[in-house]
Amino acid sequence: MYKQIDSNKRKTAVLIILFFVVVMLIGWAFAENTDLGINAVILAAIIAIVMSLVSYYKGDRLALTTAGAKGPITKQENQYLYRLVENLSITAGLPMPKVYLINDSAINAFATGRDPNHASIAVTTGAIEKLENEELEGVLAHELSHIKNYDIRLMMVVIVLVGLIALLSDWFIRIQFFGGGRKNNNNQGEGQIRYILLIIGLILLILSPIIGKIIQLAISRKREFLADASGALLTRYPQGLASALEKIAADNTPMKKANNATAHLYIANPFGRGKQTFAKLFSTHPPINERITALKSMA
């Protein structure tokens, strides 16, 4: 389990570094290909950060409302679920998060909040009804691991970078479309190398939204593997979560209020198999079979 955790942390770090490199290259390409230069990059960064901070501080309420979550529940309202979360929180050394219920027959759950002191966990009624005690405990441990690993904070950084890439690419396309802002390179001494670099920059700016999205999804998938391993370490029973994932794969019930904006929060894809044509590349979650195999190898 420790090896799996270390491996996922390293891979996430590599992806984050790659993301920053891509952003720097896009900033250079934008500055080289337009008269707006570095000022546009700074403005785009400010806009992306402001938008992400709003999401960071208010996003949990939006996610819970979008999912149709009711609560927070008290120990008297659902003693079984409340005590499971409470015991796992004590074991993990975390403050007790707020617990919400989603009236949905699908087996799913998600965690949200900007830090352990402002965290919430939402669980579907289907998960409570269809999962055995050890399986539900594995699911909850996975979600608590997202809180303990500060995954929400990490994804805010990623969202800033994705937003920056999207803004620069959109501005560049608009500038070129309306025929303004292009640098005039009249220096006769410029060689072919400069023009080759400019072409590379143009291609990078056009393809950057796709590149940014792929890296974002890759980071999200690595955090799922990390939460699986951390959750298994918390319960000391990887088979519990593996069995829960097997039931999720077999059940495959799409959630009634599945939403693309919050899909990455859930322990499993809330759309079921209906939207998994390009799951390997464009899904926020790694394939369940790969997660089950990784968990079973931890025994």
Topology, element by element:
Elements lengths: L1 H32 L3 H31 L1 E2 L8 H14 L5 E5 L6 E5 L5 E6 H6 L2 H16 L2 H27 L14 H44 L2 H14 L27 H4 L5 H9 L3
Parallel strand pairs: 2-4
Antiparallel strand pairs: 1-2, 3-4
Under CATH, the homologous superfamily of the largest domain reads Metalloproteases ("zincins"), catalytic domain
Q: Tally the helices.
A: 10
Helix content: 55-70%
Residue windows where pLDDT falls under 50 for at least 5 positions: 275-279
Q: What's the SSE pattern?
A: HHEHEEEHHHHHHH
Span of the ends, CA to CA: 8 Å
Compact overview of the structure:
This protein has 299 residues and is of the alpha+beta class. Helices cover 66% and strands 6% of the residues.
Structure in words:
The structure is a single chain. This protein has 299 residues and is α+β, with helices and mostly antiparallel strands. Helix content is 66%, strand content 6%. It contains ten helices and four strands; from the N terminus they run H-H-E-H-E-E-E-H-H-H-H-H-H-H. A four-stranded mixed β-sheet has the order 1-2-4-3, with helices on both faces. It is elongated and about 70 Å long. The N and C termini lie close together (8 Å). The model is unreliable at 275-279 (pLDDT under 50).
